[in-house]
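User: I would dearly like some help making sense of a protein record. I have put the entry right below:
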Amino acid sequence: MTFPAAASPSILSDKLNAIRANWGWFVALGIAFVVLGLIALAHVLISTIATALYVGALIVVGGVVQVIHAFRVQGWGHFFYWLLAGVLYVVAGALIMYNPLLGAGVITLLIGVALAVEGIFRIAAGIGSRPGSGWGWIVFSGFITLLLGAIIIAQWPVNSVYILGLFLGIDLIVNGVGTFFFGLALRQKAV
């Protein structure tokens, strides 16, 4: 097995200079993300519905691909398992798209459970690495994640109408701020 040769320093430098020359696009993209995040936070119900519809559409597409896959690999065996999985995906995605608020409720509950479980695992990982330095930060982040999951679960299903929109808005703002400052850092290096 051969691996591609490492890029020469001049090629990497040229690519970095090309990125630095476009620092303004990163700044503009960051501003756009922040604005979109603020809009999402101002309209969390609409953002939640849009997110649920998007997830439902992705599940439908995944199911259709799974059904096509079932017919493409018929000779491998287990055709009906592949087909059934694809059909279930299509049905689940269609149900989410038919009733996005109910879909948002299910997705919100899954997020809450996932956060709680992740928090427990992170706490265990932090405690397990206790002789090393910094283990307390892992435990602390695990407690915060567990707390977020517990809050979501405790307030479910009422919070289902805004959690996805809230997460979308926060994600867009955080991504926007990061992209904005990345662009500014590129500008300083380009000058």
Q: What stands out?
A: The CA atoms of residues 126 and 139 lie 5 Å apart. The chain has seven helices and no strands. Residues 44-72 form the longest helix (29 residues). Residues 28-190 form one domain.
